[in-house]
Design a protein that fits this description.
The protein has about 425 residues and is mainly alpha-helical. It has helices at about 45-50, 55-65, 75-85, 90-115, 120-140, 145-155, 160-175, 180-210, 215-230, 255-280, 285-305, 310-320, 325-330, 335-345, 350-365, 370-395, 405-420; strands at about 5, 20. It has a two-stranded antiparallel sheet.
């Protein structure tokens, strides 16, 4: 904002403030009641108020561009490898190897981000991960030996947690304003759901209409470009905290129990996806499954407008109850009923994740925020992998068609039980 000139005139009194950026033809006696002199009222919509802060639109746009490929890489790799090697088992094993490697390295990448800054670490880490995806693409295109596929997919494990970095920026900008931070976390969760809903669709369309490697190539370009735009917004980047001797956020009281809840919650997501795909088994499986993400996205945006937030155990209880709907709907044999059940069940997902991530932010020291949130995401990914495997086994050995939908219901009940037994979310946590 330009600074007013309050220089004293030779006559003695100070002249009226004049902004140096205004042209010299400004009227010498402006009315103090001109509209442009009045402060603009803040938007009534809490989401619009978030983006009145300087720099928030730019870093959010870059982060969304970078986050969309997270839902594209897996599907693109499966289609690309299956087309070249005619084996979905190989494609699944290669992508699972990449996820496992990422789960190991992600907390270390996040620790470096906390210690040296987002721009300094995220850009080279992303460039290295993109290089790994491109090398994997070339190996698949040239029908390289199988060991080369597993070796190169491990190179992609340096990808930073873009969603966690965005949440860390909101936590820095909105420090002390818990209501606004709740809205920001709700927006980020809705953005996650939207990206993971659109990403696989975009990847499948690109791979099927252009060539099998098109999805991976496009995702790599978007990922690197989005991170470059995000990292360039230095004004909103959290400051580098002094080096701490506190050790890992895992040592924070309550963090281990909360990660166990995240692990069980991830099993809900992973098992629901697999058992739904196995139950529907057709071209409409994708759109039916996308309804769960759509319900979560809508509920997340509504939850962000709420003035009062629910406790984590309340959200998990709602999830456990609503996860019974897909089971009941599948028992009827109606595909329309299942679609409706998934839509309603998905509405418990975003509030649970928003509340859980809010607890992570309050438990984790500010100097380790990226690492703490990445640990939560890693626990979720571990739960998703376990849920996918369990859901696949249930689908193959189901005594009746709807049997697989017992798995996400059981996982949600387990998450609620862990939360109640450990006291996580029973009362607000203090930093």
């Amino acid at each position: 904002m330009p600074q007013p000139d309050l220089t004293l005139t030779p006559a003695g009194p100070a002249v009226a403030p004049r902004y140096r950026t205004r042209p010299a033809t400004v009227s010498p006696s402006p009315s103090p009641h001109h509209d442009h002199d009045r402060p603009k009222a803040a938007p009534a919509n809490p989401y619009l108020r978030l983006f009145t802060l300087p720099g928030t639109r730019a870093f959010t746009a870059g982060n969304l561009i970078a986050r969309l490929p997270m839902g594209m890489f897996g599907v693109s790799a499966v289609i690309m490898i299956a087309a070249a090697y005619d084996s979905y088992a190989l494609a699944g094993a290669v992508t699972a190897t990449g996820m496992a490697a990422g789960a190991v390295t992600a907390p270390w990448i996040a620790r470096l981000v906390d210690r040296y800054g987002q721009a300094r670490i995220a850009v080279p880490a992303t460039a290295y991960a993109v290089l790994g995806h491109l090398v994997l693409l070339l190996c698949v295109h040239q029908r390289a030996p199988l060991w080369a596929l597993f070796a190169t997919t491990a190179l992609t494990a340096t990808a930073p947690n873009t969603g966690g970095m965005s949440r860390a920026r909101w936590a820095h900008l909105l420090k002390g304003d818990q209501d606004a931070l709740h809205t920001a976390n709700s927006f980020e969760q809705a953005a996650d759901e939207l990206c993971f809903m659109l990403g696989p669709v975009v990847a499948a369309v690109l791979c099927s209409t252009l060539f099998p490697e098109a999805g991976t190539l496009t995702a790599a370009v978007l990922f690197l470009g989005g991170v470059l735009v995000f990292a360039a917004q230095r004004s909103t980047e959290p400051p580098i905290a002094p080096r701490t001797t506190a050790g890992s956020p895992l040592r924070v009281p309550g963090m281990g129990a909360l990660l166990a809840v995240f692990l069980a919650t991830g099993a809900v997501f992973g098992s629901m996806e697999v058992v739904t795909l196995a139950y529907v088994d057709g071209p409409v499986a994708g759109p039916v499954l996308a309804l769960q993400a759509a319900g979560s996205c809508a509920a997340g945006l509504l939850y962000g407008r709420a003035r009062r937030t629910a406790r984590l155990r309340t959200c998990l209880a709602a999830m456990a109850v609503l996860m019974a709907l897909p089971l009941l709907a599948a028992s009827t044999g109606s595909l329309l009923a299942l679609a409706g059940g998934l839509l309603v069940a998905g509405m418990a997902t975003a509030p649970t994740m928003v509340t859980g991530m809010g607890l992570v932010q309050r438990l984790t020291p500010a100097s380790q925020l990226n690492e703490g949130m990445t640990l939560a995401v890693t626990a979720l990914l571990g739960g998703i992998a376990a849920g996918s495997a369990t859901g696949g086994w249930a689908a193959d050995h189901a005594p009746f068609p709807a049997f697989g939908f017992l798995i996400p219901l059981t996982a949600a009940t387990l998450a609620l039980t862990l939360c109640m037994a450990t006291g996580i979310g029973r009362r607000p946590s203090v930093p």
